[in-house]
Amino acid sequence: MQAAALSIRLSRSLFSRRISFTQISTRSISTTQILFSNPAEVPHLRDPWPLPHSPKHMASTTSPENAPPPEPLPRPNEPVEKLRARLVYQSRKRGTLESDLLLSTFASEKLPVMSEQELKEFDKLMDEPDWDIYYWATEKKNPPERWANSTLLEQLKVHVRNEGRVVRRMPDLN
């Protein structure tokens, strides 16, 4: 109640003095700082969706170190062309836009020329959590032992560095 009364009194005094808009916005920000010593305490200022690469996001998306590798679905006798088509789709529909963009552009460039063994390794990578793949590819986190020496993950890291400064967008489906 006191905060609302102080805010109303401050607003009335600002308008009665004919202060410019920039001064009002500066004053209202300082009022928030007076009422709350920490901006994170203000309910409408807390960010429920931290940005990628922020410490809060990286901590909240970390998989446990001792987590077992994901169990892939068995797909016996899957033809190579069906495997390739499935991987194109899976690389586009990850659930996070960041992973979708990185993996779909990588798949668009590399899947057509990959061998069956490389396709199966990419399939195993697709079973990993989105944010883990993203942070491994952007080299913000070290991959677990099972991916530490992967040539596929190294190719993905090179792709993500984008040294040619190519403007990337989601590739078209054929």
Q: Could you characterize what this model shows?
A:
The protein is mostly helical and 174 residues long. It folds into two domains: 2-45, no CATH class; 55-161, Flavinator of succinate dehydrogenase (DNA polymerase, domain 1). It has nine helices and no strands. It has helices spanning 2-16, 21-35, 55-60, 80-92, 97-110, 116-126, 130-137, 145-148, 151-161. Helix 4 packs antiparallel against helix 5. It is globular and about 60 Å long. The chain starts with a helix and ends in a 13-residue tail after the last helix.
Overview features:
globular, 174 residues, mainly alpha, 2 domains
Protein topology:
Elements lengths: L1 H15 L4 H15 L19 H6 L19 H13 L4 H14 L5 H11 L3 H8 L7 H4 L2 H11 L13
Helix pairs in contact: 1-2, 4-5, 4-6
